[in-house]
Write a structure and sequence with these properties.
The protein has about 70 residues and is an all-alpha fold. It has four helices and no strands.
């Protein structure tokens, strides 16, 4: 799962986890969360949507289904 979040050439070295233990892991995870938020915001802008619900709706429509809006 973490490997899938490593995007844009970001490479984590195994040694960095051993340096400061849990604190270093927390820092790395926070950076990953921030990166995911940025990429999600860019994706939403490209698709001209504002929510995860709209993203799922587009996905369902791409499968050939046309759900009725609530």
């Amino acid at each position: 799962m973490v490997t899938a979040l490593l995007i844009d050439g970001a490479i984590l070295q195994p040694q960095m986890y051993a340096v400061n233990g849990s604190l270093q892991c927390i820092k790395v995870l926070m950076q990953l969360v921030s990166a995911v938020k940025v990429h999600r915001r860019h994706l939403y802008a490209k698709l001209d949507i504002a929510s995860q619900q709209e993203l799922f709706s587009l996905f369902i429509q791409s499968l050939g289904h046309n759900p009725q809006p609530p």
